[in-house]
C-alpha cells in the first residue's frame, strides 16, 4: 500500500487518468525498440496511453547509430544464435544416426552461406513483424537516434541529420547494451557476437575469448559446423555464476565434443599474418586462427543519451540506476532492460516493460519479480537452470541443504553409442522440503526446465516432485524419480561436488 502511494505521489497515472496530458506531445516516449521498449510501448498503448517510440535504422551488425526494431534478441542475439545452434546440432545428430541404421556413406556438405541467408531472411521477417505489432497497437514509430534533453523532452536525430523534438509526460529508456572488446594490441582484428552471427565465411580455426554463455554457445556452434575451436577464459571453469557441478559437466561436454579448453588464460596480442590471425596468450602459447571472437562482456547503451546532462544517475558500469519499479531519480524518466544491467535476458526485459506500463498507465503498481527466473545456455548439449545453485542455497539457507543428483546415459545414446552423460540436480531445503533450485545439462534441458520453473514459482516441495507421475520413457521423468539424497550439506558449510 505504501509503495502504491509513493508512486502516485510521484506522478503516476491511474488507469482513468490516462487521457493524453494536453500540454505534452505524448504520454510516453520510448527510446529503443528492443524487447523491453516494444513490450512497454504496446502495453502502455493498450492502457490507452498516447505512445511514440524511436529506433535506429536496421542492420544485422549494430553500431552507435545502427540497430533495428526488434532489438538485440531478434536481430543479433537469442533468435539468430538459436538458429545457428540448430544448424550446428545436425552434425552430432548425423553421427548418432549411424547406429540407428542410417547409412551416411556420401560426404555430407554444409553450406554456410545458405544458413546465413536463411537466418538473415528470418530476422528481416521478424523485424517486419515487430514493426507491425507496434503500428497495430497504435504506437507512433520514428527512425532515428533518441536523446534525453530534459525530464519531459526527447530529441530525435534522423538519418539525414534532421532533428525533431518531442515532449512527453513520461520517458522510457530501453536502449539495451552492446558488446565490448578488451583493450589488447590487435583488438581491431577480433570480432564480437554481432559479426559472428553474420560472417561471410565459416571459420576453419576459431578462437573464442570469454567464459560466459555467449562464448560457450559460439564455441559449440563453430565446433558443430566443423571448425577447430579454442576457448580461452580467466576462471578454472566457464560459466561463472552457474552451479559449479554443472559448470564442470559443461566443460567436460565441450571437450568431449572436441573443443580445446584453455582455463585461466587470457589473450595478450593479436597480429595479422599471411596465414591468419596470430594469437598470443598470457601463458606464452601461440596459435593461428581465422576468426577471434571476443565475448567478454557488454556495456549499457547510455553514452550518447545525454543522461548526465538531464540529471539521470548512472552506476559505475554506466547502467541507468532505477528503483524497484524501474524509475530513475528523475520522476518522469524510467528505464528497463539491459540498459539497467539487472538480469540481462529477453524475458526479464519483457517483464520489466510490462510492469512499467502497468505501474505508470494501468493503475497497478507492479514490481518485476526476479525470483526463480529460469535461463539456458545453448551449448551443445544445453544447460538450463532455475532458482538457487547449490552454492547460493548453502550461502542463503538457515538450515541444511539436501542435494539430489541423477547422472545417466540418455536413452538415445544407448544405441548411438555417444559417450555423454546427462545430469540433473535438485537443491532442497532440508527443513521445509521446498525445492530451491533445479538444473540440468543434457538434450532438451531448456524445454524441460521451463516446466520445472512453474513448479518452483508455485513453491513446490520435493515430496510434490516425488508424487508427480513421470512421462515414460523420457529424460524429464528423472526429475520426479530422484529418491535418494546424494549429499546433505550442513548449514554454513562449503558446497561440495562428487563428480
Ligand atoms: C549473442 C547474444 C545472445 C543472446 N541470447 C539470449 C538468449 O538465448 N536468451 C535470452 O533471454 N537473452 C539472450 N540475450 C540477451 C538479450 O538479447 C537481451 O537481454 C535483450 O535483448 C535486452 O532487451 P532490451 O530491450 O533491454 O535491449 P535491446 O534488445 O538491445 O534493444 C535496445 C534497442 O535500443 C536501440 N537503441 C540504442 N540506442 C538508441 C538511441 N539512442 N535511439 C534509438 N534507439 C536506440 C538499439 O538499436 C536496440 O534495438 C542474448 C544477447 C546476445 C548479444
TrEMBL record:
InterPro entries referenced in this protein's UniProt entry, alphabetically: FAD/NAD-bd_sf, FAD/NAD-binding_dom, FAD/NAD-linked_Rdtase_dimer_sf, GSHR, GSHR/TRXR-like, Pyr_nuc-diS_OxRdtase, Pyr_nucl-diS_OxRdtase_dimer, Pyr_OxRdtase_I_AS
GO CC annotations on file: cytosol; mitochondrion
Keywords: Disulfide bond, FAD, Flavoprotein, NAD, NADP, Nucleotide-binding, Oxidoreductase, Redox-active center
Enzyme class label: oxidoreductase
Residues that, per the record, bind NAD(+): 210-217, 297
Keyword Disulfide bond assigned: yes
Binding locations of FAD: 82, 146, 175-177, 338
Biological role: Catalyzes the reduction of glutathione disulfide (GSSG) to reduced glutathione (GSH).
Protein name: Glutathione reductase
Organism expressing this protein natively: Stephania japonica
